[in-house]
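# nightly structure sweep
# worker-07 picked up a monomer target from the shared queue
# config: single-sequence mode, recycle default, output format = structure tokens
# input follows
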Amino acid sequence: MTRKRNEKSSRQLQAGGDGSELPVKASGYIPHGGEMCVIDDLVSVREGVGEAIVTVRSSSPFVRADGTLEECLYVEMIAQTMAAAWGFELPSGERKTLEGYLLGIRSLKIEGTACIGDCLRIYAHKFAEFGDFSVVEGTVKRGSEVLAEGEIKVFQRSGKDTERGHVSD
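# output follows
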């Protein structure tokens, strides 16, 4: 597999594909709803880069009895941040046709644990792609403290490019 470095512009997007301005609620840009949406707001988008925030709440099913957050959720936060950034760039009609899957995790380092009330900032950067497959580097921070960082592999395709799950001619 050949990796293609993302060399697109790093300019900040001022408005999304539907005219929305940042910050926006992330739930409008990803298919996850309710408790499964693990990020609150999308705060910054550049081509291939997204930044989101979330406040850890006691009502989350991912918070343990001692008030700490399940560390495995950091991976999903990175994936949802990237998905929300991709969705933000699309018109709302096309956004509804997106399909995406987390395929793998590589070199994830857990450096710390979040607790109820912590405000986390999640950074996701797509640095390589091959067709519909991408490699995303991500970091989860509490203030300046890195709680987790690593690399995930994702599949993402717009239904506009597909017909019944198969690439059209």
